[in-house]
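input
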Amino acid sequence: MAELPEIETLRRELDKELAQKKIKAVEITALKSLPRYKAKKEFTDELEGRKILGLERKGPFLVAKIEGGAALLIDLGTGGQLVRAKSAKQVASKGTQAIFTFTQGGQLRIVDTSGHVEMWVMPYAEISAAPEFADLGLDPLDAAISWETFGRMLYQRAGKLSALLNDRTFIVGIGPAYSDEILFAAGLRHDRDSNDLTGQEVRRLYRAVIEIMQDAVKFRSSNHAAKASSGDPFDEDGSEHFKVWERAGETCRRCRRELKKAKSANRTIYFCEACQV
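output
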């Protein structure tokens, strides 16, 4: 799935660009992005002719607040992208599932080659109680908890650190790249048990989670990230920001030893044997 910094960067950009714009027309090219609807018109009728009041984020979901008390929710899944087009004359990309045209000009296009993007409309007032959000864990970009509370969460879940960081019911939207960078920053191995950490290690991990995720948002925002995807957490010019991710065989920037990789739960994990204990 698209990771949280990509979603948050995209939300901020879209909020600036689309707030107070009226949706002139919605074109749906395939129903697979609307599994909750039997017909395209059921979906488009809820949006056409209405203004977007603003863009919010609920965990990994984008939420467009629509005038009249509705909300458009977008789940980008594992490979979804939102692409802005200045005019309808701009050729649509392969895999375009939906095209939103605005009365002021321009379009927003939903592109999905994975088949996992989903959109639906629901009352804005009912979002907090919606079942889609019931099992979402801690939002590291909106965390208002202490490291002690975070520590209790770790002890209660009692799992391997890498697996927990990639579990959306524990923490939302970290993903494999960010989890490797977080564990390196905290000096902890991926296969450590979460209920076996010292108080100092819990503090280091908590600080790393917050700082790595916030820094990724700042980096992407300053580099004008144009879309959310499930690819690299930083854009094409951000490779220098990676300390371990996909750097197996290279030299650790902290201790100068060779970085390693390992397999765990069908994921490749990158780490430093000397720096992470």
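quick obs: The first strand starts at residue 23 and ends at 28.
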